[in-house]
Write the structure tokens for this entry.
Amino acid sequence: VNFCSDNVTGAAPEILDAIVRDNAGPRMPYGTDDVTARVEARIAEVFERDCAVFLVATGTAANALALAVVTLPWGAVVLAAGTPPPHGVHGVQPAALSLTQATEAGTVYTPAKLAALAAAARERGLKVHMDGARFANAVAALGVAPADLSWRAGVDVLSFGASKNGALAAEAVVFFDLVQAETFAFRRKRAGHLFAKMRLLAVQMEAYLTDDLWLRLAGHANAMAERLAAGLARLPNAALVHPRESNQVFIDLPEAVISGLETAGFAFYRWGAADATQIRLVCAFDTRPEDVDGLIAEATRLSAA
Ligand SMILES: Cc1ncc(COP(=O)(O)O)c(C=O)c1O
């Protein structure tokens, strides 16, 4: 059973079915098709405002291209709350703040926290980018409107992920400032993410956003992580490293329990220093409760041994 990441998954059946259903017949290439147009309109609806939407196939492309737009060639991207000390012309110039939602620690920024960080960035003349590879997990966890976790809190551009939450390979770069989006189409083309068969990305995104599938899938992943965290945290000498707020669990466990779980066939990453007894367990849209319970039962048995 594999808890290494939410990208060890295939696609959600609803998304795969949508690809198969849409497969027959021609559609115009390079994003000039009807499905891409519908996805753009649907994303504007989800975020409750006009926005410029560009589909790409990886989170890295989404982030790199979005950040390229909001960062001048001599600009630096700030990754945490805090700005590098200025060195005048001799240093790179802080240009953008990039926040990851949900974070790489599995926690989430509330709308208020986001708004405070974005305001601090704006005061310093920085644009605000959000790496939303797990944006769905954050929205599902907080139960707030997508707008409240993005533009209403001061986010200028969002990498809106789907690949980690049920798509095969689809991410949307969403600009809330239409002027900033102007060069994006050219950058995407140069980066090789203007797919001739953009329909394949669009149909994934359309299914993802239909009937709130994205929030149901993320809600399931979050619930499985909560079940895992609750079951493991009560073991002797177990301690959550970060609060469990999305679909990732970071936990310290005795070495005997960790190696015992590995021997029993559970896959996950060890985290931190080589001698650390911290592991990361990630749940996904298709994590089965019985697999979560199986890991907890094995860890419980190992703890008592
Ligand atoms: C927060 C975050 N952003 C971006 C990425 C990169 O996504 P991709 O592997 O699709 O390029 C990852 C992948 O693990 C991620 O966890």
In short: Residues 58-60, 63, 100, 104, 131, 133, 163 surround pyridoxal-5'-phosphate (CB under 6 Å). The chain is about 40% helix and 15% strand. Residues 25 and 199 are 11 Å apart (CA to CA).
